[in-house]
Write a structure and sequence with these properties.
long-chain-fatty-acid--CoA ligase, fatty acid metabolism, Luciferase, domain 3, eight-stranded mixed β-sheet, AMP-dep_synth/lig_dom, lipid metabolism, globular, 620 residues, AMP-binding_CS
Length: 620
């Protein structure tokens, strides 16, 4: 009997070791699964207790718990939880009184990153109004479109945007949109300044009855898509979704003791909901930067003792390209949370700035599915396991870039890809994981819905993104379906080509896209390149690198040299206009180069070469 107990004891000791050996991520998988379940349960329980429970209620709980704790740091300005509570209540009274906003209506904010962005948001929440987060870089027709698409009758801005406002003010007045400056004085006739009234109004708590009709399905905010092609769409974020997304920081191990640094624009989901909303959820401190600065980034992190940084797009790459300093590793940053980091930048960032845990996210504002890389696996945007599939139903399906549609079988159903293959990510639309869609034109929402995916009558959200899941369950972002193109019967993922080309020593940035060629099927590869300062373009080196590391069909045949690559507010490359420009040297004033296989180098593009291609006298 003693031997039996000894054997059983030995098995109990060996079990965790065997688990780690054969299932190295099992404990992390279980931890994240149970955290997801708990956070979902907690959110639903709050909503059951109080039907109109929202982000402002989370905030008020923290105000009661630690009123004098710092919530926002903005340069030398410091605001406690109590300060923001008072300011948001004062703003709420002015919005409701002088401005005339009623529960359920929408006010648009056209602001740079500043503390007012946060107390305005909470002030609108306190009176049951939605906030439209308009990109402050848009102008004229695009700005008017943003306001009309979400039905905003109020625009809150500052005199910083005097020229942009006065340009469209006659149209705004005609459409009944009121404009207010959040300042002490107004430089524009007919535009009232509100800041003085806000400062002098009562800071008494706003009665809950003011927003009594709000429900979890009521709109909290509108976040606009980047608009890399066409006009931006207003994605609807309701109170339930906002509460769920705000729990991402807690899911990544952030607590009230952490200090979060954000230089991303607050008109995007990562900065406002993941960042500010996450801090309100856990009760931490939020360091807000007016805009991203490479030279000030690490000094800010040291000054404010930052433990978490938020990133998106190319932010970390910019940091890696800055001149090295002896104190690069002297900081308190432990984690970085965001999306869009490339593998080579990921490795360089860790090598240079120390063992910071990268929590790479995958998701979209309007999406009903997302992933988090909680293991630190370099290059992955998340991990799939049997536990996750219990919470979210999604598929990677075959996609045809020529038709722009999923591939279907003889029964008309979509075809899942095998492990290791690239497929289009779609998420099943259910009551637990709904797709809310966009404000305004219903057709924009309908275009994102796929029907009869796995069986008759089902509905799936079309992410528009191509992903790959390897045999270990790690998820990798490959490309967007609008960016992927087909050449010589092969699919070319632009992000994969960009990863290869960015390692060329004279390239600062590269944006790869496909352009149509008369008389040829599909699109051929082209790359817009920004050179490193002081370095010339080397056609022979570029040719060697491309042919050594890329398959023939993926090698860009045309190179366009630009002083700067156009990007969105979230640092995504804009490809639409580049595709329209094509490769005609008579149209493009930038230096152009052509892949000359006979000379084994990229040669200057001439009108003669262009004509020979168009007239099909030159083989591609």
């Amino acid at each position: 009997m003693l031997d039996l107990y000894t054997v059983l004891l030995g098995l109990l000791v060996l079990l965790p070791l065997l688990g780690n050996l054969f299932f190295p991520y099992i404990w992390l998988d279980l931890k994240i699964f149970f955290q997801n379940v708990y956070l979902g349960y907690k959110c639903n329980r709050r909503l059951q207790r109080q039907l109109n429970f929202s982000i402002v209620d989370l905030f008020l709980l923290k105000v009661q718990k630690h009123p004098t704790k710092t919530l926002i740091i903005f340069g030398d300005e410091v605001y406690t939880y109590q300060d923001i509570d008072r300011l948001s209540s004062q703003a709420a009274r002015v919005f409701q009184g002088q401005v005339g906003l009623k529960e359920g209506e929408t006010a648009a904010v056209f602001l740079k990153n500043c503390p007012a962005y946060i107390w305005v948001w909470l002030g609108l929440e306190k009176i049951g109004c939605a906030m439209a987060c308009v990109n402050y870089n848009v102008r004229s027709k695009v700005l008017l479109h943003a306001l009309s698409s979400c039905g905003s009758k109020v625009l809150l801005t500052t005199p910083d945007f005097k020229a942009a406002i006065e340009d469209i003010l006659p149209t705004l007045r005609k459409e009944g949109v009121q404009v207010f400056y959040l300042s002490d004085d107004s430089p524009t006739e007919g535009v009232e300044a509100l800041l003085g009234q806000i400062k002098s109004s009562s800071a008494e708590p706003i009665p809950l009855s003011v927003r009594a009709n709000c429900t979890p399905k009521s709109v909290s905010i509108y976040i606009f898509t980047s608009g890399t092609t066409g006009l931006p769409k207003a994605a609807i974020v309701n109170h339930r979704k906002l509460l769920h997304v705000s729990s991402v920081l807690r899911l990544c191990g952030i607590s009230s003791n952490d200090i979060v640094y954000n230089a991303l624009p607050l008109y995007h989901m990562t900065g406002l909901v993941v960042g500010v909303g996450g801090c309100l959820e856990v009760g931490s401190t939020f360091v807000l930067k007016s805009k991203f600065s490479v030279s000030q980034f690490w000094d800010d992190c040291r000054r404010y003792r930052v433990s978490l940084i938020l990133y998106v797009g190319e932010v970390l790459r910019y940091l890696c390209h800055a001149p090295p300093k002896q104190n690069d590793r002297e900081h308190s940053v432990q984690k970085a949370l965001g999306n869009g980091i490339r593998v080579e930048v990921w490795k360089e960032f860790l090598r240079r700035f120390g063992p910071i845990q990268i929590c790479e996210l995958y998701g979209a504002t309007e999406a009903n599915i997302g992933f988090i890389n909680y293991t630190g696996k370099v290059g992955a945007v998340g991990r799939v396991n049997v536990f996750l599939k219990k919470l979210a139903d999604f598929e990677l399906i075959r996609y045809d870039p020529d038709t722009g549609e999923p591939v279907r079988d003889e029964k008309g159903y979509c075809i899942p890809v095998a492990p290791g293959e690239t497929g289009l990510l779609v998420g099943k639309i259910t009551t637990i994981n709904p797709f809310i869609g966009y404000a305004g034109d219903r057709q924009k929402t309908e275009k994102k819905i796929l029907r009869d995916v796995r069986k008759k009558g089902d509905y799936y959200f079309n992410s528009g993104d191509l992903l790959r899941i390897d045999h270990e369950g790690f998820v990798y972002f490959q490309d967007r379906i609008g960016d992927t193109f087909r050449w010589k019967g092969e699919n070319v993922a632009t992000t994969e080509v960009e990863k290869i080309l960015t390692t060329v020593n004279f390239i600062q940035q590269v944006n790869v896209y496909g352009v149509p060629v008369p008389g040829h099927e599909g699109k051929i590869g082209m790359a817009a390149i920004q050179l490193k300062e002081g370095l010339p373009f080397d056609g022979e080196e570029m040719y060697r690198h491309a042919t050594d590391y890329l398959p023939n069909y993926a090698i860009p045949h045309f190179i366009r040299i630009q002083k700067a690559l156009e990007i969105t507010g979230s640092f995504k490359h804009i490809k639409g206009q580049l595709v329209k420009d094509g490769f005609d040297p008579a149209v493009i004033s930038d230096p152009l180069f052509f892949l000359d296989v006979s000379e084994k180098r990229y040669v200057p593009m001439t009108q003669q070469i262009y004509s020979s291609i168009v007239e099909k006298r030159r083989k591609l």
